[in-house]
Amino acid sequence: MRYLLSILLAIFASSCFGQLITEELEREINRRIELEINPSFSIGILYPDGTAEYYGYGQPNTYSKQPDSLTLYEIGSITKTFTSTLATFYLKDSLNAPLSHFFPEITHPKLAQISPYQLQHHIAGIPRLSEQLKDYKNARIAYETALSLNLKNELLKTKIERCKSLEAK
Protein backbone atom coordinates (compact mmCIF):
# COMPACT_ATOMS: atom_id res chain seq x y z
CA MET A 1 0.00 0.00 0.00
CA ARG A 2 2.85 2.38 0.83
CA TYR A 3 4.40 1.70 -2.54
CA LEU A 4 1.15 2.49 -4.35
CA LEU A 5 0.84 5.71 -2.38
CA SER A 6 4.41 6.55 -3.39
CA ILE A 7 3.48 6.06 -7.03
CA LEU A 8 0.43 8.28 -6.65
CA LEU A 9 2.53 10.92 -4.90
CA ALA A 10 5.08 10.76 -7.72
CA ILE A 11 2.29 11.26 -10.23
CA PHE A 12 0.96 14.26 -8.33
CA ALA A 13 4.40 15.79 -7.86
CA SER A 14 5.43 15.29 -11.47
CA SER A 15 2.18 16.81 -12.71
CA CYS A 16 2.74 19.86 -10.51
CA PHE A 17 6.20 20.42 -11.96
CA GLY A 18 5.24 20.01 -15.60
CA GLN A 19 6.67 16.57 -16.36
CA LEU A 20 3.72 14.21 -16.54
CA ILE A 21 4.86 10.59 -16.61
CA THR A 22 8.53 10.27 -15.78
CA GLU A 23 10.62 7.46 -17.23
CA GLU A 24 11.18 6.15 -13.72
CA LEU A 25 7.45 6.02 -13.02
CA GLU A 26 6.71 4.37 -16.36
CA ARG A 27 9.43 1.74 -15.72
CA GLU A 28 7.92 0.99 -12.30
CA ILE A 29 4.40 0.70 -13.71
CA ASN A 30 5.60 -1.67 -16.44
CA ARG A 31 7.62 -3.71 -13.89
CA ARG A 32 4.55 -4.13 -11.69
CA ILE A 33 2.44 -5.22 -14.67
CA GLU A 34 5.07 -7.69 -15.94
CA LEU A 35 5.41 -9.24 -12.47
CA GLU A 36 1.59 -9.40 -12.26
CA ILE A 37 1.58 -7.30 -9.09
CA ASN A 38 -1.04 -5.06 -10.73
CA PRO A 39 -2.87 -6.01 -13.94
CA SER A 40 -3.17 -2.40 -15.10
CA PHE A 41 -2.88 1.27 -14.25
CA SER A 42 -4.93 4.22 -15.39
CA ILE A 43 -3.68 7.71 -14.74
CA GLY A 44 -5.81 10.76 -15.37
CA ILE A 45 -4.56 14.29 -15.00
CA LEU A 46 -7.05 17.14 -14.86
CA TYR A 47 -5.60 20.58 -15.52
CA PRO A 48 -6.96 23.83 -14.04
CA ASP A 49 -8.27 24.88 -17.48
CA GLY A 50 -10.47 21.77 -17.59
CA THR A 51 -8.45 19.77 -20.13
CA ALA A 52 -7.45 16.24 -19.22
CA GLU A 53 -4.88 13.66 -20.25
CA TYR A 54 -5.21 9.92 -19.73
CA TYR A 55 -2.58 7.21 -19.66
CA GLY A 56 -3.37 3.49 -19.68
CA TYR A 57 -0.99 0.61 -18.99
CA GLY A 58 -1.55 -3.15 -18.96
CA GLN A 59 -4.85 -4.96 -19.25
CA PRO A 60 -7.46 -4.79 -16.44
CA ASN A 61 -8.69 -8.35 -17.04
CA THR A 62 -8.63 -11.06 -19.67
CA TYR A 63 -11.70 -9.59 -21.39
CA SER A 64 -10.49 -6.01 -21.76
CA LYS A 65 -8.26 -3.93 -23.96
CA GLN A 66 -5.68 -1.45 -22.69
CA PRO A 67 -7.30 0.82 -20.09
CA ASP A 68 -8.51 4.27 -21.09
CA SER A 69 -10.48 7.15 -19.56
CA LEU A 70 -13.62 4.98 -19.35
CA THR A 71 -12.05 1.94 -17.66
CA LEU A 72 -13.76 1.04 -14.39
CA TYR A 73 -11.80 -0.09 -11.34
CA GLU A 74 -12.85 -1.28 -7.93
CA ILE A 75 -11.75 1.19 -5.31
CA GLY A 76 -11.46 -1.24 -2.41
CA SER A 77 -7.92 -0.26 -1.53
CA ILE A 78 -8.62 3.45 -1.60
CA THR A 79 -11.70 2.84 0.52
CA LYS A 80 -9.36 1.66 3.30
CA THR A 81 -7.55 4.99 3.12
CA PHE A 82 -10.82 6.94 3.34
CA THR A 83 -12.02 4.77 6.23
CA SER A 84 -8.74 5.16 8.09
CA THR A 85 -8.80 8.94 7.64
CA LEU A 86 -12.39 9.16 8.85
CA ALA A 87 -11.60 6.94 11.84
CA THR A 88 -8.70 9.21 12.79
CA PHE A 89 -10.88 12.30 12.41
CA TYR A 90 -13.91 11.00 14.33
CA LEU A 91 -12.40 8.64 16.89
CA LYS A 92 -9.43 10.85 17.87
CA ASP A 93 -8.50 9.67 21.38
CA SER A 94 -10.48 6.43 21.05
CA LEU A 95 -8.29 4.92 18.31
CA ASN A 96 -6.61 2.67 20.89
CA ALA A 97 -9.86 1.52 22.48
CA PRO A 98 -10.71 -2.14 21.79
CA LEU A 99 -13.32 -2.90 19.13
CA SER A 100 -15.58 -4.28 21.87
CA HIS A 101 -15.89 -0.68 23.12
CA PHE A 102 -17.59 0.23 19.83
CA PHE A 103 -19.25 -3.13 19.12
CA PRO A 104 -20.27 -4.84 22.39
CA GLU A 105 -21.70 -7.77 20.42
CA ILE A 106 -18.16 -8.98 19.55
CA THR A 107 -17.65 -12.04 21.73
CA HIS A 108 -14.43 -13.51 20.34
CA PRO A 109 -11.76 -12.57 22.90
CA LYS A 110 -9.01 -11.90 20.36
CA LEU A 111 -11.21 -9.83 18.04
CA ALA A 112 -12.67 -7.88 20.96
CA GLN A 113 -9.19 -6.62 21.93
CA ILE A 114 -8.15 -5.36 18.48
CA SER A 115 -8.17 -1.57 18.21
CA PRO A 116 -8.98 0.69 15.25
CA TYR A 117 -5.36 1.89 15.44
CA GLN A 118 -4.13 -1.69 14.93
CA LEU A 119 -6.48 -2.13 11.98
CA GLN A 120 -5.32 1.17 10.43
CA HIS A 121 -1.66 0.19 10.65
CA HIS A 122 -2.16 -3.47 9.65
CA ILE A 123 -0.71 -4.72 12.94
CA ALA A 124 -3.82 -6.47 14.26
CA GLY A 125 -2.60 -9.90 13.13
CA ILE A 126 -5.46 -10.42 10.68
CA PRO A 127 -4.28 -12.09 7.45
CA ARG A 128 -4.51 -10.01 4.27
CA LEU A 129 -6.10 -12.80 2.20
CA SER A 130 -7.74 -16.10 2.97
CA GLU A 131 -5.66 -19.22 2.41
CA GLN A 132 -7.19 -20.02 -1.00
CA LEU A 133 -6.28 -16.53 -2.28
CA LYS A 134 -2.69 -16.33 -1.06
CA ASP A 135 -1.18 -15.17 -4.32
CA TYR A 136 -2.45 -12.48 -6.68
CA LYS A 137 -3.02 -14.78 -9.66
CA ASN A 138 -5.48 -16.91 -7.67
CA ALA A 139 -7.26 -13.82 -6.35
CA ARG A 140 -7.56 -12.44 -9.87
CA ILE A 141 -8.87 -15.76 -11.24
CA ALA A 142 -11.38 -15.99 -8.37
CA TYR A 143 -12.55 -12.44 -8.98
CA GLU A 144 -12.94 -12.95 -12.74
CA THR A 145 -14.77 -16.25 -12.13
CA ALA A 146 -17.13 -14.53 -9.69
CA LEU A 147 -17.79 -11.78 -12.23
CA SER A 148 -18.46 -14.37 -14.92
CA LEU A 149 -20.78 -16.39 -12.67
CA ASN A 150 -22.62 -13.25 -11.58
CA LEU A 151 -23.16 -12.28 -15.22
CA LYS A 152 -24.39 -15.79 -16.03
CA ASN A 153 -26.71 -15.72 -13.00
CA GLU A 154 -28.12 -12.35 -14.08
CA LEU A 155 -28.70 -13.65 -17.61
CA LEU A 156 -30.36 -16.78 -16.23
CA LYS A 157 -32.52 -14.70 -13.87
CA THR A 158 -33.60 -12.49 -16.80
CA LYS A 159 -34.48 -15.55 -18.91
CA ILE A 160 -36.50 -17.10 -16.07
CA GLU A 161 -38.40 -13.86 -15.49
CA ARG A 162 -39.08 -13.59 -19.23
CA CYS A 163 -40.42 -17.17 -19.31
CA LYS A 164 -42.62 -16.52 -16.28
CA SER A 165 -44.10 -13.43 -17.87
CA LEU A 166 -44.84 -15.38 -21.09
CA GLU A 167 -46.48 -18.18 -19.08
CA ALA A 168 -48.63 -15.63 -17.23
CA LYS A 169 -50.09 -14.32 -20.52
Automatic annotation (TrEMBL):
PROSITE patterns: PROKAR_LIPOPROTEIN (PS51257). Transmembrane segments: none annotated. Residues 52-134 form the Beta-lactamase-related domain. Residues 1-18 form the signal peptide. Keywords: Signal. This is Beta-lactamase class C. It comes from Lishizhenia tianjinensis. The lineage of its organism: Bacteria, Pseudomonadati, Bacteroidota, Flavobacteriia, Flavobacteriales.
